[in-house]
Amino acid sequence: MPGLNDGIASPAAAWQRGQELAQKGDFPAAILWLERAIRLAPGDPRIALELANIRLAAGGSNQLELAANAFEVLAARYDIVPAWLGLLTARRLQLRHREAAAALAALLARHCIPDDPGFAQVAGIVAKTAGFDGWSGMLPDGTCFCEAGGALGPPFDTAALTRVDGVVSIAGGALIGWASRPAAPAAAPELTLIDGAETRVALATGQVMPPDEAAPFATRHSFAIPPSRLAGLAPPLRVISATGADLFGSPADPRAEAAIRPVPADHTGEPVKILPKRARLAVVMPVYRDFAGTKAALESLLAAAPGGTKIILVDDASPEPALAAWAESLRGPNLSVLRHQTNRGFPAAVNTGIAAAGGRDILLLNSDTLMPPGAIEALAAAAYGAPDIGTATPLSNEATILSVPEPAGRNAMPDLEGATMLQNLAAQANAGAIIGIPTAIGFCMFIRHDCLAAVGAFRAEIFAQGYGEENDFCLRARHAGYRHVAALGAYVAHRGGVSFRAAGRALNARNAAILDRLHPGYDATIANFIAADPIAPARKRLDAARFAAGRHANGAVLLISHDHGGGVARIVAREMETIRELGKRPILVFPSTPPDPKATPFPWPAELTDGRPGDYPNLRFSLPAEWDDLLSLLGAETVTKAVLHHSLGLAPEIRTLAGALKIPQELVLHDYASFCPRVTLLTADNKTAPLRYCGEPSLDGCTACVARLGDETYENLSPGAVKSRSSAEFAASSRITTPSEDAARRITRHFPGIRPIVTPWEDDNVPVTLSPPRRTPRRRIAVIGGIGPAKGYDILLACARDAARRRLPLDFLVAGTSADDLALLETGNIFVTGPYREGEANALIASLAADLAFLPSIWPETWCFALSEAWRAGLYTLVFDLGAQAARVTATGRGAVLPLGLPIARINDALLAWRPQK
Predict the structure, then answer these.
(1) Is the four-CA dihedral 579, 584, 585, 590 of positive or negative sign?
(2) Distance between CA atoms of 199 and 602, rounded to whole angstroms?
(3) Mind giving me the DSSP string for 471-496?
(4) Nearby residues of 261 by Cβ (< 8 Å), 6 or more positions away
(5) Secondary structure in 3-state letters for 186-252
(6) Taking a C-beta distance cutoff of 8 angstroms, is the pair 152, 134 a contact?
(7) Cα-flanking dihedrals φ and ψ of residue 69, to 5°?
(8) One-letter-per-residue 3-state SS of 37-58
């Protein structure tokens, strides 16, 4: 569980608090705490399951529907009995009987009957209510149980009902591992150990292991056989389930690995000096699951393969009859199908294909790829680019160190049309270019025939079902004098991440450890390559080509902004959509946030986006060094104007971009950075004192404030220099926009010659329905947004502490985040929901059941989206008497304005007593 030891503010603490409240029957509070937990740890499905169960217990139409939706997601993703049971219960309570029966049928088809004395009765009621003549299911021992006609349940998925996941490895001479039977988690799987002489030994399991992040709901039964018990057995050693299927890592051969002398990963043999004659090509494609994906992969390959290419499919005992039958039907002059009678794993399947290739060059290709025309030729050209090149690998959306556009992978897989476009762009941007890489990537790996002959096949006896076998091959090739290259002008689409089930992560860890033992320093070699990132220029050229391919005939509008999110991001996103609706291309320049922002001072590189999926994450320009490159890229677009929203985080040259492109520039003022280097007009007596509104003093006062507290723009310009620059920019701008009259007046006071156009970000004339505070013993106060110092964090903390000290019937609920959740939560009367996504605010605020909203912001905001969200949630709102927030409340009468600087106790008194006037 993430954050287990992080104290009361951690997701673990929120999860525990939610469970405690549920046990006491306080379901509304339990739901709030579990929602916080899931916001802080969105990747933990155990919290989602707990929350769904509590919603189910709470009842009510809304909670039941939320519970059902959550159970449905969990059932689809994890296929676990608790999710199916929760779903059928929720649908039954909603009187949606056919859907309840469908959930029960899914459970019974893939899972053994739960060991619950009440299950049979519930199943009978669900079946009968939906019009079925009884139900039937399988018990863990394989016995079929049938009630009445047993119509609901069949057909059974035998493979799912009998499947056993698990992994085997050798550690200290012992055979260790675990096994899990998803259809009957509580039942210890039946395992058998078989040695090389076919001696069979029943294998007992031991303790249940803690949950694994890769399979959080799997009940893993451990086993361990000490060296003394293995002494009389002949390797290799197999561990099989009752169906005869090997666990991952089986067979394991302690002798095979022990017989190999480790060689450092960075060792390089004498380079091969003779370029061999080109051989004919064989494509080896192991197939196992996913009929549709495999069919698409082969069809794309058949269309793209050069003439004379031999295609070898290796059916590794596919459990999908349709896939196996289809593969058998494909035999032809240049396409052969080889079949394993039992599943032997990816490395063994590759070796079968290599053996059948008869000395050809090999293109090892996964069955979850899409091959565009031209990619194979580019790979072959790269492989024969020098005598010592052993392998070549293309770029892909999912290719570990060769992933594009995001180098970390997880890029969406394009369809064949998209892959073909990317292949053409890669060929255009990186024509013929290659670069050395520490290892090829096995999803699409061109192996030259002489390298294969020198190195030998994959070591299936060590790497079992797979992962790391191609890396081991590449390191052995390196030791033999071959190197590996990325063909930067080739692109192949790859789905990735679908080969292994629950035990995949454990197999990966097992094989990674073996790889690093056999080739010491391998992990460091890869880490150093990633840190150096020599592929970056190629990714940037490809992104530039993609960017150019997206050019609009009607031209573009250039926007410049920061990347801090909030209201500015909302306005920029809205403006980009408007530009797109007008038939033009929006181009946003924003700072590229580094991995460790605090350790990397401004300015950050400028990055480009047009707001489309896929984006251009490699179009980053370090200024001023890459100024000409940025101008060249943008100059090729027909940019009609620039709109400067903010330049925080960007190099100062960005502010001159419109002039360099010879286009008009508009300014949108979201804050007071045009004359206040601290941006928000807040000051303090020293860096540890609470912030307060500065009153907008003279230039000398501003200078002293910045000298005392620092520059929030990190430009190191004096207030005088900032004002001079802004004056020049205002004079040159074609339009100056600000969202409120209050902001316009403040700006005009400092720059008397300008006339900003006031354009409210929202229409306060749109009717809203507000509810007065309830007459209850306690009053609940919602505080909305990211509550940092400028948004009144210190005020809120002081209010909570005063309420606790005076035992006031006040509860504060922060809908969002804060500068320090821990300090707020420790007061005992503040709850913090955690971060929410765009569009969630209204439902989230409503779930808090608040009486009033309080926005303790202490700077004169130019707008205030949190105020609008409070109103839309039906809450009257109290604010301080400054900025757009005060002006809007005064104009609409939707709350009250408190004097700035009001003592904390008086603020709490107002929160307790205020009611709208009739």
Answers:
(1) negative
(2) 67
(3) HHHHHHHHHTT-EEEEEEEEE-EE--
(4) none
(5) CCCCCEEEECCCCCEEEECCCCECCCECCECCCCCEEEEECHHHHCCCCCCEEEECCCCCECECCCE
(6) yes
(7) -65, -40
(8) HHHHCCCCHHHHHHHHHHHHHH
Q: Do 169 and 186 fall within a single domain?
A: yes
In this structure, the answer to whether residues 200 and 145 fall within a common structural domain is no
Q: What is the pLDDT of residues 868-877, one digit of tens each?
A: 999 999 999 9
Counting the structural domains of the chain, the total is 5
DSSP label at 152? Answer: B
Task: Please check the confidence at residue 3 and state whether its pLDDT lies above 50.
Answer: no
Same domain, 566 and 675: yes
Average pLDDT for 22-35: 95
Cβ atoms of 182 and 163 closer than 8 Å: yes
Q: In which residue are the tokens 């196996």 written?
A: 324
Neighbours of 837 (CB within 10 A): 9
Q: Under a CB-based contact definition with an 8 Å cutoff, are residues 175 and 235 in contact?
A: no
Confidence band (pLDDT; 50, 70, 90) for 2? very low
Same domain assignment for residues 77 and 177: no
Kindly report the number of other CB atoms within 10 A of residue 897's CB atom: 17
Q: Chain-centre distance of CA 871, in angstroms? A: 32
- Residue 624: is the preceding peptide bond cis (ω within 30°)? yes
At residue 193, the pLDDT reads 95
Tokens of 677: 């280097």
Q: What is the pLDDT of residues 547-569, one digit of tens each?
A: 999 999 999 999 999 988 889 99
* pLDDT score recorded for residue 1: 42
SS3 for 748?
Answer: helix
Tokens of 57: 């217990």
Instruction: Look at residues 486, 592, 580 and name the one whose alpha carbon lies nearest to residue 542.
Output: 486
The rounded distance, in Å, linking the Cα atoms of 652 and 666 is 17
The three-class DSSP label of residue 673 is coil
Confidence of residue 6 (pLDDT cuts 50, 70, 90): low
User: Which of 159, 185, 204 is the last residue in one of the domains?
Assistant: 159
What is the CATH number for 491? 3.90.550.10
Burial of 211 (0-12, 13-18, 19+ CB in 10 A): middle
Average model confidence (pLDDT) across the chain: 94
Domain enclosing residue 838, as ranges: 779-913
Helices (H), 614-756: 627-635, 657-661, 699-709, 719-732, 741-750
* pLDDT over 60 at 115, yes or no: yes
* Three-state secondary structure of 827-863: CCCEEECCCCCCCCHHHHHHHCCCCEEEECCCCCCCC
Based on the fold, state whether residues 144 and 192 are members of the same structural domain: no
Confidence label for 145 from pLDDT (cuts 50, 70 and 90): very high
What does the pLDDT look like over 179-197, one tens digit per residue? Answer: 999 999 999 999 999 999 9
Task: State yes or no: pLDDT of 399 exceeds 80.
Answer: yes
pLDDT at 501 over 80: no
The residues facing 787 across adjacent strands are 818
Average pLDDT value for residue range 231-255:
91
Residues 6+ apart with CB under 8 A from 719: 675, 676, 677, 699, 702, 703, 706
Kindly report, residue by residue over 729-780, the tens digit of the pLDDT. Answer: 999 999 999 999 999 999 999 999 899 999 999 999 999 999 999 999 999 9
For residue 516, CA distances in Å to 446, 468, 482, 528 come to 24, 10, 20, 15
DSSP assignment string, 494-554: E--S-S--TTHHHHHHHHHHHHHHHSTTHHHHHHHHHHH-TTHHHHHHHHHHHHHHT--TT
Specify the DSSP class assigned to residue 663. Answer: -
Greatest Cα pair distance in the chain: 95
Nearest to 799 by CA among 823, 770, 767: 823
Same domain as 300, residue 199: no
Same domain flag for 211 and 68: no
Q: Is the pTM of this model over 0.70?
A: yes
Note the pLDDT of residue 5: 46
